[in-house]
Amino acid sequence: MRLLRREGPKTCGALERDKPRTTRITEALYVGGAGVAIIGGLYWKKGTTAGALAGLLSGSGLVTGGIVSRQIWGDGFPLNGAQISFFGSISACLVYGVVSLLSGSEFIAQCCSWRQCEGEIPVACGVHPAQCFSVSKKLRNRLLALVCLLAFLAVGVLFYVNWVVQRPFAVILFLSDNLSPSVLTSARIYAGGADYRFEMEKFPHLALLTTQANDFAVADSAATAGAVATGQKPNNRTLRLEAGRTPIPTLLELARKNGRATGIVSNTSLTDATAAAFYAKTSDPLDFQTIGLQLAEASDVNVLLGGGAADFLPATKDGRRKDGRDLILEMRNKGYDIVRNQQEMESTPLWRAPKVLGLFSMGQLAFADEVQFSASQPSLAEMVLQAILLLQYNPKGYLLVVDAGLAGRASAQNKGETTLQEIVALDQAVAVARKYAGENALVVVAGKQNSGGLRLNGYSFRNDKGAAILGINAQGIPSLTWSTGPGSGQTTTPDGIAHTEPSAFTTASAVGTAEDAVAVSAGPGSEELSGFRDNTDVFHLILKGL
């Protein structure tokens, strides 16, 4: 759009260059865009669809330009709000011109400041023809309509492809048992006192997730993991549903179809229900041998770090496979780098396409308070860091699924302090992911199921933390109690030996509790996860990011 000044009764205008560029853009923005909006509104009263369309689009350009550039791209976006709004106003005028010309209307001459030269065809702003020439009105309309359509299409495609369709390069999903409001509060106080804040608590979006299974109101770990992995709720003790005879695709499979690299990190076993829900074809979460075999035969996950080596080795090599197959050797022959300790993991080449299988324990990994006694095992944060370094070289991005399952294992045994330490370890891994994946990565932390019913009781001081909030508190009652489970810890009382972490109802292992799970998210598209949601909504959020 060009600004004109009148120089004679029969002379087309010349561009006014006296004003600064910013001023010219601002004037063009408000005069041009607002003019089209106002006149479009007037034509709306007359029932003209084209006028309404022009007003709508120009108004959208004015209002959303600054919002889009600031809220989504920030200061790094190559176009500022005024420029985006400017282009929006031009686009509105072009669309209106197409409709007007096709309908034979001359309103476009007023909208875009056209002049008549020598009584012949309209001449566009800023055009200085040597002489005017005549063409038929029908041909003129068709030519101008074609130009407007092509210009609008080019601008729209360029803007959409380069700036609107910006999916996150990194998508990282953390899943953890016992990530409930009560346990999160207890872990925060344990870590640093009442004023302490976890890294995950700094995420901009928070939701509470319902976690029921397809058949029971309280779901187990397999059902909750399957709901997040596929977007469909399976029954308890079931990993995934089947559509006919074909298992419903998981997030990992959908990510691979989009060209992304994929990875799984777990501080339990790689054949455990949570990890298996994202790749296994079987529906039985306890069929560990079949799950391990399917993982080895598919060999389509780029990075695998965790425990569970026994499910990949035959009994002759201290494993528990009954078919005699050495799946670790088979995966090595398929191109996987096999790492068995932290040093080997950190020595994995980062300069080529990753294909890494890390098995650091025959079963689950050591609890957070035991890692120092098992120096060969990496922590959850160290595995997440290595997975990011390996996966980030894929030009189309990656999806990383992190199973922080040891919090659930600790709660099943009523190990209160260990449960809190596992939540702290999860937060440390989240902090690593945010730091190394970048702030434009989509990071989601979601709870799965809750078990045991852990509660922090009494009135500890505001700055009390760590061991100060454990044991028998100042009120003479246990600081940590459970609703179900075997109980843990012992103390001597006048009545004899008692648990320092008693269970209200003694069971061999803690059972599930009815409580919503916490979910937090940050990054592109994360605003969709807020309020009260279902755990299947996590699937749909991740899917949009792929």
Describe the fold and architecture.
The protein is an alpha/beta fold and 546 residues long. The protein has 2 domains: 4-164, no CATH class; 170-457 and 512-545, Alkaline Phosphatase, subunit A (3-Layer(aba) Sandwich). It contains 16 helices and 23 strands. It has a 10-stranded mixed beta sheet, sandwiched between helices. Helix 13 packs parallel to helix 15. It is globular, with a radius of gyration of 32 Å. Mean pLDDT is 78; it is low at 1-31, 39-48, 62-83 and 101-133.
Distinctive features:
546 residues; alpha/beta; Alkaline Phosphatase, subunit A; disordered N terminus
> Could you say which structural class the secondary elements and strand pairing correspond to?
alpha/beta
Task: Please identify the top-level CATH class of the largest domain.
Answer: Alpha Beta
State the share of residues found in helices, binned by percent.
25-40%
* Cα gyration radius (Å): 32 Å
Q: Alpha-carbon distance between the termini?
A: 38 Å
> What is the CATH fold-level name of the largest domain?
Alkaline Phosphatase, subunit A
CATH architecture of the largest domain: 3-Layer(aba) Sandwich
Strand order within the widest beta sheet:
11-12-10-9-13-5-14-22-6-23
Beta-strand content: 15-25%
The strand count comes to 23
Domain count: the total is: 2
* Poorly predicted ranges: 1-31, 39-48, 62-83, 101-133
Considering the protein shown, what is the CATH homologous superfamily of the largest domain? Answer: Alkaline Phosphatase, subunit A
